[in-house]
Design a protein that fits this description.
Length: 246
């Protein structure tokens, strides 16, 4: 399992060909920025003759360092008072020259962590903790896929303004496409008429797609280009309302 996981990580970084996000003390629109690109500017300034001189840092020194960083359970990130939506930030954006073949790396790391936790259990406990053996089903059916900026076209940023999502991001050796890993309720699933396992005699239920903020290269109505937090579909949740008159 460990060898399989490392193989997936290597293939993941091989197709990504993009720089990671780094900490930046930017107020208002969050604290993450892609290195080598200015936070704000015009589209011409990003694709001009000097664009190639802004070198991008390497992805990571070693794969072990990346895994250790992302799986660090002792790292407790608290949202600031100025930005109370910090718990909605996700890592569902990738810059790549081709459609990613795997879910975001953090999803794979979470699965690997669950595997390590299960490896420490006894065989009997492991059998009983398997969701398939317990007959567990999701309350709402969902579907996840990578979508491009060309499919999204526009999005809503943190200030409530509608911005244009740029399809390509300029880098020293050309351009990379922006991909977004979106999760939404499955319209063809068995829960399109209501949530699974809900007592319909007492409750009205509905599976509803919810959104979170991700960082993306966008352009506002004044043609200003910059990295902003926008909303994308990230989950499918069950909403309940009690039936009246009972």
């Amino acid at each position: 399992m460990t060898i399989l996981f490392l193989t997936m990580v290597i293939s993941y970084f091989s197709c990504m060909k993009a720089a990671p996000m780094k900490e930046a003390s930017v107020r208002g629109h969050g604290s993450l920025a892609y290195p080598g690109l200015r936070t704000h500017g015009t589209l011409e300034s990003l694709t001009g003759p000097n664009a190639g001189s802004r070198g991008l840092t390497s992805l990571a020194d070693t794969f072990e360092h990346v895994i250790e960083e992302l799986l660090d359970e002792d790292q407790d990130i608290q949202p600031s008072e100025e930005n109370k939506d910090a718990d909605l930030y996700t890592s569902r954006v990738m810059l790549s020259s081709q459609v990613p073949l795997e879910p975001p790396l953090l999803f794979l790391l979470e699965e690997y962590k669950n595997y390590l936790d299960a490896a420490n259990m006894s065989m009997r406990v492991r059998r009983h903790s398997d969701p398939a053996r317990r007959g567990e089903l999701s309350v709402c059916d969902s579907t996840s896929e990578w979508v491009t900026a060309a499919e999204k076209k526009t999005a809503v940023d943190m200030s409530g303004a509608t911005v244009t999502v740029l399809e390509k991001v300029p880098v020293p050796k050309g351009q990379l496409k922006q991909y977004f890993y979106e999760t939404k309720c499955n319209p063809k699933g068995y829960t399109k008429e209501g949530c699974r396992g809900i007592d319909k005699r007492h409750w009205n239920s509905q599976c509803r797609t919810t959104q979170s903020y991700v960082r993306a290269l966008t352009m506002d109505n004044k043609k200003r280009v910059g990295w902003r937090f926008i909303r994308i579909d990230t989950s499918c949740v069950c909403t309940l309302t009690i039936k009246r008159g009972r």
